[in-house]
Write a structure and sequence with these properties.
The structure is a homotetramer of 349-residue chains.
Chain A lengths: L4 E6 L4 H11 L4 E7 L8 H4 L16 H7 L2 E4 L6 H10 L3 E4 L9 H8 L6 H6 L1 E2 L2 H8 L4 E3 L3 H16 L8 E6 L14 H4 L4 E2 L7 H13 L6 E6 L6 E8 L6 H11 L6 E3 L17 E8 L4 E8 L3 H15 L16
Parallel strand pairs in A: 1-2, 1-3, 3-4, 4-6, 5-6, 7-9, 11-12
Antiparallel strand pairs in A: 7-10, 8-9, 10-13, 12-13
Helix pairs in contact in A: 1-12, 7-12, 8-10
Main location (chains A, B, C, D): cytoplasm
Subcellular location (chains A, B, C, D): Cytoplasm
Pfam family, one (chains A, B, C, D): Semialdhyde_dhC_1
Chain lengths: 349, 349, 349, 349
């Protein structure tokens, strides 16, 4: 079919993978030609996901770069951390465009990767080739790229909430605190007590306090924007819901900037960016208001009593925080409109 | 725009209305030209639904048939029961096509309507004109129609689960029991203790036992299919979730029909019907597997010990049970493919 | 301490076990002297259940009947099905009173056990010794007994909802359908996709249709009460909540019995039984109204149109459906007031 | 009954009131002699709360201080803000002990009350008489008192998490940020979109950003402990669950204090206080681990990279955050053990 490209999805049986399928099936310029799983190769895709009955009739392919290269133009890697470090180079060598949804190629410093991920880091020459696909901030790098490291869910929400202020130099960079809350789908389909319904339902708690692997990813982005090292506090929490991330971000505002000035700064920064909606002053986003969509919604408030700004940033962790941003990056890589195939509304309620 | 029609939505601030907006925004042949509310006319639509920020920038229109007729070709009435009885005739007289999502034009017998709905019934001459839009069963009537009574949520799920067996005459018509369970969005956006989070969450209960207004609607459909009066038991329950209906249906199977025969009967009945998925024997649908989509998924099991069949029928109450079926009916009224604008997958998880 | 007995709990790290601990800690006549686990022996109990920090400071004991007999007078077996078949006899031989919360000693017919549980049945001589502890129906048997098979959660809810009518002979015994709905804690703390939060939340589905192991247990109870074999339909469903079971029960009423007569029958049958609350006519129980308590609440409605009765029966599956009824049985075994230590209210909301 | 006192509850039909009933029914030294409601006087209590069927058979009394004084020794005011300002003095004049669960007598500065509560402040002479009942901090004041202002839910969680550090002077008092998350029952039984199930379920959002009325209450407590004014940032969020508050608290640690030192500080501060459980280093509380109980569980972590401490503080908002702490205060007022009637475990799961 002229004008369309063929896509393969590795790790297609995880939540990131199945969300990619939902989005790509609606994309007018993409055809899914291979759904791939190392653990379930040969099985019907719908054995694990009967909601796609009569929609996806394929069996799962094994992970085989040659085979994939014969069937697809682009491959999405929606595998657990530590897998694509080894496989992404093979897919690239086979001539495929690669979008990696794992954390393996996001951190430039391998020793930091190793400290937080407890895996050996990827080959530095490939890390260098990977473009960090935070589309609204580094979109220019993504245009025409062949290899994109898709940002993490928390880092997307946090960075989009902070970048305008950091770039403008209006906050004390040592004062940043990100208190983030995520739905349970962020933990994937794997089983553990922290994804067990009876343990999570009617419960709220923080985890990986002061040691979550998204901390250095957020710091790397803000340091790059600031032009100097940024160290911050990041606390993730689990919310008894399936989808959604809300980051509540705190920082000391400098030079007496007013709420109106900051709001205007955000409005201008995101002008023309389809997927970031800066809410009017006095209004704040809820995760349900972006559910199922690729939006990142931002609201902010300045407290004159403390000189502190509070920023609220909401995304659907599986869309803007994973599969949706990956499709947005594909659009940029191909030179298409960034909203191609992504222009649908949130599902509410 | 050639090839497109203009749509207005009355009662657009309810859950049926906002779901119509989500679906029609994705429909390639429809443009929404008026969002209407009797209670909030003049306000921005997004004041009540900020998830549509930057998507719907319109203010709400008042209910004015002349105005609507000047702006639209078709009007969806997503108003509470008892409202469209009075307004639908006016919209029809003004030359609009009308799709009524309320219960006002579904029941042919006004006295039954009055008994269950506690409202005066609509003018019988208009009731006669209204085509009951259960697309997979009475779709032929809908083709080219101007006035459709869109089925209720429970009746859609229940009737699609029973019609093949009733039409085939394979069950004891006096043995039908429908034990139905719905998410809370079915109760609308109005406030009451039965939609109060702290009352409904971690709770499960039945309501309107032996007196729910959908009982006669289901009986009317099955009686029409059977060619004789059908009386049945229907019990609705509230599930602590937002979307979804599962009907568990019981009946006595006659003449020793086997599970395989019944399964084949369903397969054939729904052959070519895009939105009904008959699951393989041994598999049963879950509401999450149809969430956000227009599918009705059906599974069945025959128990040789009791001679009884158990049928499971799952829909998203706001889509196939309301707005999605209304769009499907619009497609049939216009002579379009019934799946036009509705060919998206469930949102999972 | 004079007047108290010492209790041990095998399988104390499951949900049945931890609920026994909650209840026994409040019981004025019982002291917990050993918490036992085959898989976690030696660990601190609070490693797995930090909500008991500073309350339970014990380490888990291994399963050792001699040791248990030296420390306790009664042992609760809250182990998975198939375990107590082997261990209960040993505890009995060691001189302990035994209350088995598993299904291993409930079914008198070993072949039926084997068919539904897929385990070898227990030694028939011990099965014969086990008293089936449905306290409100067979409580006389439990008085002074040494070995009690504690009823299953669904069977408790279903049988209490049906026994008065079955005993009175007022329903068609071939017409019974039990449509039951349970919170997720009924599936235990083990991990599987059906206890995975993102799969279960915002979802509703039936499982083990026409083959759940509680079917023969309910049939056995009703057959015993009826004095003839009863075969029925039982369908369990999973509700996205942690605790609670609601059974919606249908049957054909015979001889034109009225709603008022049936209600009076229930009122009289449960007169003086502290834990069954027959609701006034027109009122129906919700699971939240019994949460955390040992109540079974019952409501009923007769439909003159169909001649059918609908009975609603609600319990907390972990209390009246497991640990609470076990304590109630202990009270009867010891000759104490059946409500000893159980006289607390539901937790609402 | 010798040794018991008689209690009345005004506002007994709200969630604070019904939780007081649950707790007082278990209290060995208290008898409930009047349940009171201004809006539902004359109705059966169980009309609104059928979970208390056969337990509370009383009708609701009207608000009448003379009548109450004739029937009770102590009155709990669980009324909305703005009500007890007028009624508490009348009950006091009538000779009753008064425990006010509303915000009307918590803030010493009437102008601050008026700014945040939008009500006229209470008579300052009565405000002065009211003892602020944060039992673990100001318990000495409560001993023998006649009039207690029971702390708010968020302030209890936040203050217990901060007081040891503030008293020790180990943190920068200008650096305090409290990011708090509450279950929906905190919003009461009143109806609004923010308690509507379909709006709140699968949703997470902040509210009253930089203007919640609990901000000055927390500041007042910390200022009193610090001996100088404390200004801080407080952000409340709504969690899609019924019960529970988790406060995530951030502050700059001064003078290079280590995690071990801070942990020891907390351990010592709460030594002997039955209802505060300081978790071992590396462990953090979840709201479900205190559900239904009067515990406040605290965990903490120091990040050497930022010099910041993160404190997690969890309570059940209806127990330690309202009714439970009120009973604890009653115990102190009467000179009883503070745990009298409150020594039960959390309900888990």
């Amino acid at each position: 079919m002229s004008g369309t490209i063929r896509a393969a999805i590795v790790g297609s049986t995880g939540y990131g993978g199945v969300e990619l399928i939902r989005l790509l099936l609606q994309h007018p310029k993409v055809r899914i030609t291979s759904v791939i799983s190392s653990s379930a190769a040969g099985q019907l895709y719908t054995d694990g996901y009967p909601h796609l009955t009569e929609i996806i009739t394929d069996r799962l392919d094994a992970v085989d770069p040659e085979l994939v290269a014969s069937k697809a133009d682009v491959v999405f890697l929606a595998t657990p951390h530590g897998v694509s470090a080894a496989t992404a180079p093979k897919f690239l060598e086979a001539g495929l465009k690669v979008i990696d949804l794992s954390g393996d190629f996001r951190l430039q410093d391998g020793s930091v990767y190793e400290k937080y991920y407890k895996h050996a880091p990827a080959d530095p020459s490939y890390v260098k080739k990977a473009v960090y696909g935070l589309a609204e901030v580094f979109g220019a790098d993504v245009n025409g790229a062949s290899f994109v490291a898709n940002p993490g869910c928390y880092p997307t929400s946090a960075a989009l909430g902070l970048v305008p202020l950091v770039q403008a130099g209006w906050i004390d960079l040592d004062s940043i605190i990100i208190d983030a809350k995520s739905g349970v789908s962020g933990a994937g389909r794997g089983m553990s007590l922290t994804t067990h319904f009876s343990e999570v339902n009617e419960n709220f708690f923080a985890y990986k306090i002061n040691k979550h692997q998204h901390t250095p990813e957020i710091e790397q982005t803000l340091s790059r924007v600031a032009g100097r090292p940024v160290t911050l506090t990041f606390t993730p929490h689990l919310v008894p819901m399936t989808r959604g991330i809300l980051s509540t971000i705190y920082a000391k505002l400098e030079n007496g900037r007013t709420e109106a000035e900051v709001h205007e700064l955000y409005r201008q920064y995101y002008e023309g960016r389809r997927f970031v909606r800066v809410r009017p002053l006095g209004k704040f986003p809820a995760t349900k208001e972006v559910a199922g969509s690729n939006y990142c919604d931002i609201g902010l408030s300045v407290d004159a009593r403390t000189g502190r700004i509070t920023i609220l940033s909401a995304i659907d962790n599986l869309v803007k925080g994973a599969a949706g941003q990956a499709v947005q990056n594909l659009n940029l890589m191909m030179g298409w409109d960034e909203a191609e195939g992504l222009a649908f509304t949130p599902v509410y309620p």
